[in-house]
Write a structure and sequence with these properties.
The protein is of the alpha/beta class. The chain is built from 11 helices and 13 strands. It has a single domain, classed as TIM Barrel. The mean pLDDT is 96.
Amino acid sequence: MKRIEGTFLQFWWSMREVDEAQWEREIAAMHTAGMRTIILQWMQADGKNLFEPPDPFPHLLNIAHGQKMRVVFGLRHDGRWWREWGNAEYLREEARESIALAREVHRRYGKHPAFAGFYVPYEIWDGSFTEAQTAQIAELLRTIGQACRQIAPGKPVLVAPFFAGLIPPERFEQLWLSLLKDKPVDVVALQDGVGARGWDDEIEKRVPPYFSAMQRACRQRGVKLWCDLECFRLTNNNPSRPAFAPAPAERIVQQLKAVSPYVERVVTFDFYHYMSPHRGEAQRALYEGYLRLVVNKGIAG
């Protein structure tokens, strides 16, 4: 069974006020849990650059490096994506803006030894896309991915799509064979959907078929497949305003068992909000449960 080797960090504007001592505690806890990679979900959220002074990321990089961890930098979060994904002009604009942001991020942080690549935050799902729509999204990924590789040679480019069971696994595989043509990214970190969809009691039914399909597509295109494991649980039945809380550690073990045959690595979404022992009792319970059931059990043999 795989372990969680890294975490997304959904960095909001308010988190710029987290002080260096707190980040030291958070990252030390990640390290104790066996995590070695931090994926910053975005560097720009709805037009605001998170690195505006005072820039919080140099000391975060330094702390991560001190723990022998690496940091992947996300690009743009733009809420229009969910309305305009089918608009070719919008996608061209997003590609231009994302590439400009990647250049600025690399200028600021690219020489740091903890810098480990780029994450493209556009979340692609298992939709019934037309051939033209699929080609447009593929072009978005290809344009950004190729530019990121030129900006930071040798550093990987990641994307984290999701599935909701909207199309069969076979069609999902064909969709990603099309999207991954010419290898626009190096890593697909497929979201397992368990937390967002409330699939707590349907993990074996829902998750393996889509990971198996994505594994076949990634292997054919020479792309690495990771799992983006959701460490939260759905607490209401309101699709328009879902609420979430930390999941029980026992469910995380089920998720790990479900995806381990298909993926090279597992990262989680996201440690800071749902798994940090410094963020609340439910978070601490998940963290300590994970250590007990996975990390320490593994060490003991």
